[in-house]
Amino acid sequence: xxxxxxxxxxxxxxxxxxxxxxxxxxxxxxxxxxxxxxxxxxxxxxxxxxxxxxxxxxxxxxxxxxxxxxxxxxxxxxxxxxxxxxxxxxxxxxxxxxxxxxxxxxxxxxxxxxxxxxxxxxx
Length: 123
Description:
- The protein has 123 residues and is mostly beta strands.
- Helix content is 0%, strand content 45%.
- It is built from no helices and six strands.
- Strands 1-2-3-6-5-4 form a six-stranded antiparallel barrel.
């Protein structure tokens, strides 16, 4: 995704979200749901991420997300149960924002490029 601008979208102050799919390690230090687990990273943006987990994580818990050499400290802001597990939204600490030059998830996709011809994409 060389040359792409990551971060806030041009039309709003909403962080640009990217779709992805990668197994990452999540460490949960809360007393009720403590432990390490492997989760699937589904979306990522500068200030947070969406994870899919087979086990629950406590809303409000402080967690650590390890993606290869990259480490993000975060707080769980929402947990939604569903048929196959839990959708977990985390907010990264301001000290550990996502920087694409430091970590590029597998299968990273910018949804704003869907349906555009290659000539229409920014370089």
